[in-house]
Design a protein that fits this description.
Mean pLDDT: 78
Keywords: Membrane, Transmembrane, Transmembrane helix
Helix content: over 70%
Low-confidence stretches: none
Organism: Miniimonas arenae
Structural class: mainly alpha
InterPro entries: TM7S3/TM198-like_dom (IPR025256)
Subcellular location: Membrane
Radius of gyration: 24 Å
Order of helices and strands: HHHHHH
Membrane topology: Multi-pass membrane protein
């Protein structure tokens, strides 16, 4: 099997997985990487303050586990923090920019309006679960693009050099873009429905009202 077939098939498989399960996959990957880093950091800290070496005692293992739980949890939630901070900066830029363009004076009032706009956009992002939606949207369309690129490799529309250089031919048919768009939309719908169902099941479990118990 030639390398173009290997790359093409892998691109299709990985792209489809990210398109339809990207939210769950990325959250897990982020948490695992963070937990691993925390495990090493916790063990290293204990090793520095004790003479027993790396993971040489029960205390070292406790430190490693605590570090894994701490950094894993932070990594799991980090994307939400990043999105919220991003929304705040966008809100401030919009509020202060429009105020300055409209000639609002004095300058401190422009800053106040920008801060209010930032706070409002943060509230909206939290109330509408915008961080989760953005991750679903990015993974769905990113995965769709990867899968379609893999198909183009398999049928010979593009080459590996085209893909690795990022310079795709200008004469690609419009249907490839439409296919990626449609696949991305389907991926968003599938992921969002799965996410909603998962959260509903968790709420019912916490409330002691599982679907089986209501029959």
């Amino acid at each position: 099997m030639s390398e173009i077939w290997v790359v093409g098939i892998l691109s299709v498989l990985v792209g489809l997985f990210m398109c339809f399960r990207g939210y769950v996959a990325l959250r897990v990957v982020i948490a695992v990487v963070g937990a691993f880093a925390g495990f090493l950091l916790g063990a290293a800290i204990v090793a520095e303050v004790t003479p027993d070496g790396f993971l040489g005692t029960t205390l070292a293992w406790i430190g490693a586990i605590v570090g894994a739980l701490l950094l894993g949890g932070l990594a799991y939630a980090f994307y939400q923090v990043a999105v919220v901070l991003g929304m705040a900066s966008i809100g401030f830029a919009i509020g202060s920019g429009l105020s300055a363009a409209l000639g609002v004076r004095p300058d401190w009032l422009v800053w106040v309006i920008g801060a209010v706009a930032a706070a409002l956009l943060v509230v909206v992002s939290l109330a509408t679960d915008l961080p989760a939606f953005l991750l679903v949207w990015l993974t769905a369309f990113g995965g769709a693009n990867t899968a379609v690129t893999g198909v183009m490799l398999l049928v010979g529309v593009v080459t590996l050099d085209d893909v690795t250089s990022g310079a795709l031919p200008d004469d690609l048919g419009w249907w490839w873009a439409v296919g990626a768009l449609v696949l991305g939309v389907v991926g968003v719908v599938v992921q969002w429905r799965a996410l909603t169902a998962s959260r509903q099941a968790m709420r019912e479990a916490w409330a002691g009202r599982t679907p089986a118990g209501r029959r």
